Amino acid sequence: MAKKSRRNTTKRQRSERRFLPQSASNPWLVRAPGAIGAMGIGAGVWGYFYGHFVPDEAHPVQGTAYNIPLFVLAGGAVLMAAAIWFGTSGEAAIRVGDPGISVEKGDIRRMPWWKVKSISFDGPSESLVVTGKDEADADFSFRVRGRAHPLAVAWIVKEAEARIPKKLNVDDADLARIGEAQEGGTKLVLEPLQVVGRRCAATKKLIAYEPEGVVCPACERVYHKASVPRKCACGSEFSKSQVSAAEADDDVDEPVRVAEADDEKSDASAEA
Q1: Which residue ranges make up each domain of the chain?
Q2: pTM of the prediction?
Q3: Whole-angstrom Cα distance, residue 146 to residue 52?
Q4: What CATH architecture is 93-190?
């Protein structure tokens, strides 16, 4: 009988939530035209078929009276189209989860947590402003409007507080306006993070094999297993089993300082 391997092959399940935008218009601009349009379509269809196939001998329908149901039907269709137009939003879908914050408008453009430069709240427009770099290391900045994405805004703040609190620039008054994160959106289960081909955040050493990579559970920075610090640059602590013997000395925080220096250098170059 073959022996079972004692190696733990289970990996942390990555996931994210997908939030669709909602209309920022007054709800009555959707309800009233929608209700009247639905009644107009129903009345127009009924009147048209009744006048053609079930004529009333006492009050026969003649001449232009045949066209009245068509006018009612057309008017109802116009009102229904207006209700649909007012009820939809041109904002992009937002994804929030382990990989970072993503803007989905046709293609998905993602900003990993460890590449977020700042998250702030713009009170006049009730928008969350996110700046940083995307996965291709290109400058990326976008707004998440609270009226179109109330659930996504609250969820971004919640995740940022847990993952990158140093990058979150939202005061208590704005937090009260945003509110607490509620369950919503569609939860999507993702594939494990591919670490092969990435470089260590501390030493820039290329990770050639998957077992060599150690991923920060908060911001998903990748470190080489021989250079794992006690604390990631985001502030999250690694377990003792993940910290290498070389980092257990006095220079344990050196990889963190290297990663932070790289972040400051990239921010300075972006401002220049």
Answers
A1: 28-87, 93-190, 210-271
A2: 0.69
A3: 51
A4: Roll (2.30)
